[in-house]
Amino acid sequence: MIRGIGVDIVDLARFERQVLRTPGLIPRLFTEAERGLPVHSLAARFAAKEALIKALGDSAGTSWQEMDVVTDAHGNPGFVLAGATAAAVTARGIDTVHLTMTHDAGVACAFVVTEGTA
What we know:
InterPro entries: 4-PPantetheinyl_Trfase_dom, 4-PPantetheinyl_Trfase_dom_sf, ACPS, Ppantetheine-prot_Trfase_dom. The chain is α+β, with helices and mostly antiparallel strands. Helix content is 36%, strand content 32%. It is built from four helices and five strands, in the order βαααββαββ. It is globular and about 45 Å long.
């Protein structure tokens, strides 16, 4: 059963300006493993985290540092959730989180669907 759906779009130029203007955003919003990625990949990961929060219904119990956007051996994106964020997802009855991301034509977009039983 679908528990939530979330989508987010990020303007790449605006995101890059924000990151350059406020360098502290990178360590606040991204895990250690994400920080060295190109700006378009960071923007897509930011959109993914925002889309997850929207799919959850709110940000209660979530932390940017506990949402790691990863790719599998085939390049498919997904989340590795930890700590209070993983607990918040479980408490909402969610056992599967689906993620897709893209970046093109000056924007990054992410779409999340959460599923749970009952």
